[in-house]
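We emphasize that the prediction below concerns an isolated chain of 266 residues; any contacts that depend on oligomerization or on bound cofactors are therefore not represented. The input was used exactly as deposited, without trimming of termini.
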Amino acid sequence: MSKFCTSCGAQLADDVVFCTSCGARQDVQDANADTANSAKSAAADLAQAAGNLAHSAGDTVKQTFDGVTFDSVRDAMNVDSIKNVAKTKDKNTIIGISAIVIVLIVIIILLASLLGGGYEKPIKSYIKAVKDTDGDALMESLPPYMIDMLEENFEDYYDDEYDTVEEYFEDELLKDTLDELEDEYGDHIKISYKIKDKEKLSKKKLKNAEDDIEAYYDESVDISKGYELKVEIRIKGSDDDDEDTTRLNVYKIDGKWCIADMGGLL
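Result of the prediction step, given as a token string:
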């Protein structure tokens, strides 16, 4: 019995659908996860289809480009020309329609890319790092400048014992963290979170964060976005469970969403 009720925390058999203690349904999160995975899969398929269509449109443009000018395409983009393009096969109209298709494809791909995790990704990576003692996942949650600093100084401090920074994290930091959690909550540690509130950080606060990083790490970075999050974290083991609410900031630093204040999580 390694399953716990998502509502009251009671220990349950793995195949139980409703909690035997409080009656709450247990497969809601799984259904939500399946829905999210389906959406991501659909977005990936859509992006692939969009890429194929863009390639086809590009071939059409190449085959019909000779002798075409911007003015001739503009003049050919009228209702009658577009309606009759299948019959007339006017190269100017085809070029204009292809250009519109390509613009729409770019928009679709950009929208599909928004399903890739965003500001929540570093939180998920950090929790996975702790739960699975995964050094790669921990690196995914860190800012680029911090990773550079760790890798630059690695040989001076740790290369006699470890081959990589990730290996050091797993053996020295994450393993100890998981051991402490198991001592307090028991085996089969599960960590979940819920974002209770989100506040967009102002440009002034983002600039202050950039200045702080430059002052402490001597690194010039670009922080394009940031949020202050109110996060509820729940830890459950075979012996006990607990939950707490904390606040932490996530930033998009040099194009990567990351956490700059790890202490706010666990």
